[in-house]
Amino acid sequence: MKNIYGETMEALEQYFVEHNQAKFKATQVFEWLYKKRIHQFDEMRNVSKETISLLQQDFSMDFLKIVTKKSDQDVSKYLFQLEDDNYIEAVLMYHDYGNSLCISTQVGCNMGCHFCESGRLKKVRNLKTSEMVRQVLAVEEDSAIRISHVVLMGIGEPFDNYEEVIKFIDIINHPKGIDIGSRHITVSTSGIVPKIKEFADYEKQVNLAISLHAPNNTIRNSIMEINKAYPIEKLIEAIQYYISKTNRRVTFEYILLKGVNDSRENAKELSTLLAGINCYVNLIPYNETSHIEYKKSDQNTILAFYDELKKNQIAVTIRREFGSNVNAACGQLRSNYKEE
Ligand code: SAH
Ligand code: SF4
User: Fold this and answer.
1) Given this structure, which CATH class describes domain 2-60?
2) pTM of the full predicted structure?
3) What angle do CA 109, 87, 106 make, to 5 degrees?
4) Ligand 2 pocket test, candidate residues 113, 117, 289, most atoms within 8 A of CB
5) pLDDT at 333 (0 to 100)
6) Rounded to 5°, angle at Cα 92 from 77 and 80
7) In CATH, which of 3.20.20.70, 3.50.50.60, 3.40.50.300, 3.40.50.1240 is domain 65-339?
8) For the chain, counts of helices (H) and of strands (E)
9) Nearest CA, atom 8, ligand 1
């Protein structure tokens, strides 16, 4: 049975029309689900009994089960159990500009980045739209906090699950839904070129982040398998297309791995690669994991890398380190839990 949290407004409208019912019922249902946050269909007081039993027949509305939650002062990390006994995670981060939730889009990931826990465990399956929406609902309910920003940077490659991800964005962005502004939503991809082009033509003003992590193909090939399919030239070309279509600034994520991609030379080469592109670089201190041998760059190396980019007029920030105490990097909680 389908879960109701996977239905977009358009899909629900169509559903009601097909069942000879008024289209506006979709709006009523959305308000009950996302404004009033009910847990049972029969709590929808202005909806007829007949409609409620129709919905009960066709949809479930189960919430996600929270298995563990680990918190410190600026982050809460949730591990969820799905109906088929798979595990995913979401990370809530408290910023001064609001609360942002990092959600998972797949169980595991097939992109095979060498530094990543989610890639180490491989993809089991795509998440359904409802499983993404329910991460947001479960965290808001558990934390009693309003989430202002959503980033698709948890377990999985969003563009390897494109259609469900787009439906997810439609639902959380809908004014009658969770109503998170499109400029407050960020999709992060390892660089699936055809999907970046497709995303350029998507009508919403959603942010795009690219996991670049290297200034040239030699280094990128050695840490990211996807670069063999879509090398840097093709990636940059797709990003240029995205920028020309959307006029939006792109974020490049760059994890600093000790002795791999963190030299001053690498910073220079990165500056040349990105010169003239409407972008900014987010330097990410690597979150070490016990299963993978890469090490985090020293603080001085990180600062030198930063300075070199600045000197070359590249907009750059260093990501604040969230949750290294609670293993907040992508996939860590799940993989530790599985191994116990
Ligand atoms: N698959 C997408 C989104 C999920 S990964 C992507 O790769 O962009 C989100 C980000 O976390 C990516 O930039 C990824 O490279 C980074 N990441 C993965 N493992 C990490 C670790 N151990 N420490 C820091 N960042 C990590
Ligand atoms: Fe997948 Fe992203 Fe991890 Fe690479 S970094 S393996 S694309 S989740």
Assistant:
1) mainly alpha
2) 0.95
3) 30
4) 113
5) 55
6) 45
7) 3.20.20.70
8) 13, 14
9) 189
